[in-house]
Amino acid sequence: MTHSVKLPAWDFRRGMATARVMTQVGCERGAPLEVLLHQTGIAPEHLEDPHAEIEAAQEIQLIRNLLHALGNPADLGVEVGKRYKLTTYGLWGFALLSSPTLGDAMNLGLRMMNQTFSLTRHSMQQVGDQVHVVYFDEHLPPDVRRFVMDRDRAMGPTVQREVLGRPVAYSAVDMKQPEPDAAQVARLTELFGVCPTFGATQHRSIFPAALLSERLPQADPHTARLCEDMCRELVEARNSRRTGVAAKVRDRLLRTPGHIPDMEQIAAEMHMTSRTLRRHLTAEGATFRGLLEEVRSTLAVELMARARLTHGEIAERLGYADVTTFIEAFRRWKGMPPSEYRRQQGLRPSHGRLNRPMLRA
């Protein structure tokens, strides 16, 4: 049986801890702080502010500065990734640590990816007796892809080791890049516990599915649920704090829930081409697709709670071609189908309304 969970989001706002980790490594290697923060919009005092957040685009600029200042050393991504501990992630890390099993922790972690510092996209899929975690980087600027991939992949075994209490026994690790020098191969082999395969068609880590059912040493389901609820509130709050052009697009999408406009229509209303709109959103670390997902997720919950519409009616109002596509999207947003979400939230399922005209999305 094959089961997959995909999380397309990557351009979410993130905590300042990720900038703090990277500037610490850069300064340790001799880079001046002002050089690392150049054109990022991050002031030195922001690094110590526990409530400060940055856009993905700001983090990408910081990465560019770091690479340029240090001469793009081959080991930099892995070295930085190993610095991200469970405590770096705050509530997200505590929620993982408190989960009943490794599988619960990984599923929660993927659902709440907006509480991490990942810039890559991930999918987790069970194939037979193995779990495949695939990493995607095609959406990232080419000049930072290698660093980001190395960093985000190094985060994985580091966090998993803290959660499980011991290293995860990987069956295989695939990397798209050519084989590096012997020293770098040795570092990667030590990190993953297995020598990677280089020149692969995709970035992928494989481990036995039996590990998913292993009980975690600090499991506390009640604490895990509390942390997950708090993480979800933070995710929703971050999604609502859009600024600039992204905020205007999000507000426009929310304005007419019965008829959600496409990118061309919104661009025309803002007196620009869709290409210009896309460029503005990219500069702010956002995408039209990501904003549309945020809005649809928000509206779906509101329509369930207040309008008591059927899933088919909600799907139509949100612009989905059929109810199956909506259900798949809802599972991606909330980690469960809408029927289960209704049950957990105590929402009475609706049986629809007769002789009632439908709004076309």
From TrEMBL:
One of its GO terms (cellular component) is cytosol. The lineage of its organism: Bacteria, Pseudomonadati, Pseudomonadota, Betaproteobacteria, Burkholderiales. This is AraC family transcriptional regulator. PROSITE patterns: HTH_ARAC_FAMILY_2 (PS01124). It comes from Aquabacterium lacunae. Pfam families: Arabinose_bd, HTH_18. GO terms for molecular function: DNA-binding transcription factor activity; transcription cis-regulatory region binding. Residues 338-361 are annotated as: Disordered. Residues 243-344 form the HTH araC/xylS-type domain. PANTHER family: HTH-TYPE TRANSCRIPTIONAL REGULATOR GADX, HTH-TYPE TRANSCRIPTIONAL REGULATOR VQSM. The keyword Phosphoprotein does not apply. Keywords: DNA-binding, Transcription, Transcription regulation. The keyword Transmembrane does not apply.
